[in-house]
Each structure stands twice: as C-alpha cells, then as structure tokens.
Amino acid sequence: MIEIKNLKKSFGPKNVLNGVNLSVKEGEVTTVIGSSGTGKSTLIKCIIRLLEPDAGQIIVKGKDITHIKDELELANLRRNFGYLFQEGALFDSLTVGENVTFGLKYLTKTPPSQYAKIAREKLALVGLKGIENLKPSELSGGMKKRVSLARVLATEPKVILYDEPTSGLDPIMSQIINELILDLKKKLGVTSIVITHDMRSAFEISDTLVMLYGGKVELAAKAADFKNTQNPYVKQFIEGSSIGPIRPF
Amino acid sequence: MFKTLGKLILDFLNQLGQASEMVASCIFWLMRAPLEFKQTVLQTTRIGVDSFAVATMTSLFTGMVLALQAGTTMRNILSEPLYIGTIVGFSLVRELGPVLTAFVVAGRAGAAITAEIGTMKVTEQIDALHTLGTNPIRYLVIPRIIAFMIAIPVLTLCANFSGMFGGYLVSTQSLAVSSWVYYEDITTFLGVDDVMHGFIKSFCFAFMIAVVCCYKGLNTYGGAEGVGRATTKAVVASMVLILVMDYFLTAILQSIGI
Ligand SMILES: Nc1ncnc2c1ncn2[C@@H]1O[C@H](COP(=O)(O)OP(=O)(O)O)[C@@H](O)[C@H]1O
Ligand SMILES: [Mg+2]
Questions:
Q1: Is residue A248 in a domain?
Q2: What is the count of residue pairs from A and B with beta carbons less than 8 Å apart?
Q3: Partner of A186 at 20 to 30 A CA spacing, among A58, A205, B82, B204?
C-alpha cells in the first residue's frame, strides 16, 4: 500500500535519510526501530508530506505523492492518514474535548451534536474519563499522549502513523495502547506504522519490523525472522547492548 | 561592508517574497473554504480588549501634551492660545491616532500572536493542523488578519476621541480656552477627507502588522529561544514599517488630495 523507494532527505548539510527502501502492506502493523536521531520521525513525516523528500519516491496506493505541491491535493492525501505526534502536539488554546473532536469538522460530516459523545468514547478507548473540559497544560505527559491518540482515533483514519505511542506511559497503559493498535488492525483493518523503542511491544504487535541505521534500512523482516537475525547491528539494538558495531559517540 | 548590506537587502526581499506568498495563500483559502467565523470574532475581541486601555491612555496624554505645546507656542507668538482644537484634531486624526495606535497594538497584540503561532510551530501544533484537515493559513492567519483590520481602525477611532478629550482638558483647564471655542476649532476645519486619510492609514497598518506577525510566527524555529527571537523581530519590523509606510501613504494620499 505504501512503497518507499530510495528516499533521501537532508536538513542543510545533514543527511538524515540516505536512500530508504520500504514497503508497507495494507492491514499490517509495521514497526520502525532505530537509535534516537536516525530519522524515524523524519521518515513518517515524509509519508504524509509534512516534509518534502529531496529525492526518491513515495507511492501511496499507486499514486506518486513525493512532490505534490497543491495544497488541496495534499489535504486530500492526508485525509486517509492519522498521525500521532511524538510530543502530542495538542492545541493548548483548546480544551481536551475540543482537541479530540478538532478533525471532525474538517475531515468528516459528523454533526456537531455528536462531538461530545465521540470525545467521550475515544477518550475511554485510551483509558481517560471526565477530562473533556481541562486544558492540555493541566495534564501529565502520558495523559497528553493519550489525548493526542484519542484525537487521531476520532476521525477513524485508514492508516495511522504512531510516533512513539507508548513512550512516557506506565507498563500497564503501554499494554493497553498496544492492544488498541492490534484491535484497530483486527476490527477495522487499519494499517499502522509504529515507531517505538520498546522492543517487547514491538515484537508483540508487529507483522514486520524495520530497523533504520545510518539513514538506511538495515533490516526489514517478519517479526520471527527479525528476532533470530544474525545482523550484528540489529542484534545489538534488540539486546540493548553497549558493545557492538553501533557506536553512539 | 557592501557584502553585509547586499545580504541584508537580499534577505529583506526574500522575506517580502515569502510574506507575499502567504498573502496569496490567504486569498486562495478565503475563496476555497468558509471563514473560521468563531476564531475571527474571538481574535477581534481579544485584540480590542487587550489594547483598548493602553491605546486610549497613550493618545489621551498625547492630546494633552499637544494642547499644552501648541498653547504655549501660540501664546508666545500671537500672545493668545488660538486654534488649539484645530492643531490637536488635525494631528491626531491624520497622523498620531493611526500611528500611535498601530504602535501600541503591534507591541501588545502583534507580539502576542507571533509568540502564540511561534510556540505552535515549535511544538508541532502547526503540523497537527495539517494532519487534521485544515492548515495554519485558514485556521490562524486569515482570522487574525481580519481581526486586526477590524480592531485597529476601531481602536484608532477611540484613541482619536480620547486624545481630543485630553486636549480639551488642557485647553479649558490650564489655557483658559472655552469649551465652545475648542469644539468649534475642531469641527470647522476637520473634514471627511481628514478622517478618511486616517482610516486608510489605519487599515494599511493593520494589514501589515498582521502579515508581519503571522509570517514571523509561522517561520519560527529553535525552541523557546526561537520564539523570543521571532517575537522581538516581528515587533521591531512592524514598528519600523509603520513609520516607513506612514511617510509613503501620506505622500500618496496627499497627491490624490485626501
Ligand atoms: N526541522 C528540522 N531541521 C533541522 N534538523 C532536523 C529537523 N528535524 C529533524 N532534524 C534532524 O534530523 C535528525 C533525525 O531526526 P528525527 O527524525 O526526529 O529522529 P528520530 O525520530 O529517529 O529520533 C536529527 O538529527 C535532527 O536533529
Ligand atoms: Mg522521533
């Protein structure tokens, strides 16, 4: 469903993505792992074109979206996607309830009388209750993350890009989010790309795992193959060892 | 020396180009999508309420000092405080009302919107607008431009009255001009074209401040420090541009007889 070919992106002199090749299948959960700063967020931002790639191709459902410039066409592309921001990116001038239902006005034809009900439902999905009238500044980091996820779920997108959905959450809440991701796949056939640092949940939820290293895909494989790989980079990363070919300094 | 100057000019032209692109984008979305009515009303009242007190206070004292200066000068030259109302009225309506109000609003509301939009930029809220089916032009910029173009002329009007009232206080209390004379001095000479002159300036300033402050906000980078930098730049740029525009607008308006 999403084909990425030889994707390159740099910021000034800094080459972040250096020829990424990746294929994401419809209805699957694809997890992207890799050290901080390797360009995981940059990759998924290119996919919904918050960033424009320098070179290469991104093809979504057979349509080349790499260099679309027209704002209306871009808006139409993004209609299919939900994007969970790493830091939540809640609108701090609006209440939690208004945040959750924000996209409904622009992406759906839901009558406003339904908004309160939808906000309640989606917040319940992420384990939150009775906070619709609070402002984001009154929430903890983990709560913001979950409200942000509720905002993504509200418009019921077919493809969801999660940027570290469980970072900053306690183990129980992380598990609830993992189950939610699997539930969306099973019940609604949602396609997901998940960035995570949590290897245990990565193996639990993924159909395919992808490791980014040095601006390229080091390994992309089914979960079982990924676990048993002999690739020294991937092995070191999965085991979380400080000894190996990956040198952070 | 020439190199830095050249770079400055290129930089300015580049930003002017990008700001024009933003305005073009505003026109595009104004035609393609319904106006964010609620946001527009919210912003208009916010700007109006925020800046009302300081705008009227500023011009109250400006009117007072104008009357005092004009009064003493007239007394020295003509040994009588003549035409105080005319001098105060003209200066305020054609020049000081629009300029001072624009200054005050740029420092107050202009800084606030750059800081707000800048913070939204560095915390990815602007990106979030894109992913939720709208965009910053439609949701943030258009409502603010319209809000400024409504609020600033209204505030200018209030400031003009408040300034003339300040002039009235000084004229009647310390210069011994009768209220009737002060009033006559204003109404006999001040015409519709003078009021138009002030209003046209006011609209132009409002548009410019909104564009500059939104543009600087949307182009913020570099965390909290970046927000501070963008805000300062937006206010300084607005203030300089107000004075530059004021000269050229006066020249143009006078040449067409307004
Ligand atoms: N807007 C930007 N401007 C400049 N550099 C950026 C920008 N966004 C990301 N980068 C740089 O690109 C690299 C990859 O960032 P990111 O994709 O956020 O990494 P990850 O999500 O894998 O931790 C980082 O080194 C970061 O400094
Ligand atoms: Mg990241």
A1: no
A2: 56
A3: A58
Close Cβ partners of B37 (under 8 Å, ≥ 6 residues apart): none
Q: Report ipTM for this prediction.
A: 0.93
Tell me the best of A16, A86, A218 to mutate to test the pocket of ligand 1, counting ligand atoms within 8 Å of each CB and taking the most: A16
Tell me how far apart the alpha carbons of residues B29 and B63 are, in angstroms, rounded to a whole number.
42
Closest by CA position to B215, among listed B130, B125, B133, B145: B145
Per-residue model confidence as pLDDT tens digits over A57-78:
999 999 999 999 888 899 889 9
Range of the domain at A100: 89-153
CB contact under 8 A, A89 and B133: no
CB atoms within 10 A of CB B160: 24
Nearest CA in chain A to B121: A89
> Would you state the pLDDT for residue A249?
66
Residues of B in contact with A72 (CB under 8 A): 32
Q: Is the CB of A196 under 6 A from ligand 1?
A: no
Number of domains in chain A: 2
Looking at the structure, tell me whether residues A116 and A12 fall in a common domain: no
Task: State which of A38, A51, A84 you would mutate to test the pocket of ligand 1, scoring each by most atoms of that ligand within 8 A of its C-beta.
Answer: A38
The answer to whether the predicted template modeling score (pTM) of the entire model surpasses 0.90 is: yes
Predicted confidence (pLDDT) per residue in A164-219, tens digit: 999 888 999 899 999 999 999 999 999 999 999 999 889 999 999 999 999 999 99
Look at phi and psi of residue A194 and say left if phi exceeds 0, alpha if psi is from -120 to 50, else beta.
beta
CB A52 within 8 A of CB A221: no
Q: Is the dihedral of CA A146, A151, A155, A159 positive or negative?
A: negative
Domain positions in chain B: 38-255
Residues A75 and A131 in one domain: no
Give the CATH number, domain containing residue A98: 1.10.8
- Asked if residue A175 belongs to a domain, the reply is no
**Are residues A231 and A109 part of one domain?**
no
Check A93 against B116: CB less than 8 A apart. Answer: yes
Atom index in ligand 1 nearest the CA of residue A34 equals: 22
Distance to chain A for B241, nearest Cα, Å: 30
- Please name the residue of chain A whose CA is at the shortest distance from the CA of residue B124: A89
pLDDT tens, B175-226?
A: 888 899 999 999 988 889 999 999 999 999 999 999 999 999 999 999 999 9
